[in-house]
Structures are given as structure tokens and as C-alpha cells.
Amino acid sequence: SEVASVGGMVRQYQVVLDPERMRALNLSHQQIASAIQDSNQEGGGSVLEIGSAEYMVRTSGYLKKLDDFNNIVITARDGIPILLSDVASVRMGPEIRRGVAELNGEGEVAGGIIVMRYGKNALETINGVKAKLQQIQQTLPAGVEIVPVYDRSQLITHAIDSLSFKLLEEFLV
After folding, report:
1. CB neighbour list of residue 101: distance below 8 Å, 6 or more residues apart
2. Pfam families, alphabetically (predicted)?
3. Do 115 and 55 contact (CB within 8 A), yes or no?
4. What is the pLDDT of residues 126-170, one digit of tens each?
């Protein structure tokens, strides 16, 4: 099974552009977006042969901290680089919220939906998830809890009991 997350806060880097500085330096949004994109990617390499060994060479250019963003070169004028920090401020912040989940009308919650793999036994999967949730609950900080809101195990157990009763009834008739 797998868990599909719902709700909660996702952190992201936010680039807040200064339109006055952009206008003064004659820079467009597209130039800045392209510079950020070009500075945040891996580059393929080749194979380096040393003796009888081969080594894979590649570059990892992913931006990992605020200074990495601030030092992105957007362009150069007369040999002087114009950095992202010259026209924008970069900060960590929350992603735009696309949905909020509540539980019984009280406060925000983060949610997860357990998705069972095709062909697996539903009751075994549910019982396995319950055992794992009990294990995880013990490691959570005070005030944080995992609350199942929909549990199909009772429905499955009831269906099995009904089927068993009907089979026994038919067998006796």
C-alpha cells in the first residue's frame, strides 16, 4: 500500500522581485525565470578512464540554500554580473494553499489516504496499516495524533459474516 498526503504546509523558496530595480536594470521576468531555471539543474557528463577503472562524471547544480539563489547571475553588463539579489529577495515560505482539511470542524489537519495495491487482501492491509499507525503514534510529539476517519475493516468483516451465514444456511437447506 502507499499513502497519498493531503493538507499540511509545504515549504518552498520564494523569489520576491523588485519591479523598480528590474526596470532600472532593464530586466524582464522571463530573463530572471530562465536564469533561475538554468542554475538549478544537473548536467550530464561522460566517462573518465583512469587505468582499468571508469568513473562517471556529472555535475550537480541544484540550488540548496538561500545564498545559492542570491548569487545566481542573471546577466552581465560591461563585465559586471547582475545577481538575483540585485533585483529580488529570496526567502523560505509556505507554498500557496490549494486546500485545507479539518477534522470535526476543529483546526487544520494533514491527511493521508492509504491506497491498497491491486490484488492484495484488504483486511490484511488494513490490519497492517493499523499496526504501523500504533507504532508511529508512539514516536509523535505531545499533542500530535493520528486519527483514522474511515475504516473499511468493519464493512469487510460484516460482509464476510453475512456470506458465511448465507453459505451455512444454504448448506443446511
Report:
1. 6, 7, 108, 109, 110, 111
2. ACR_tran
3. no
4. 999 999 999 999 999 988 888 888 888 899 999 999 999 999 999
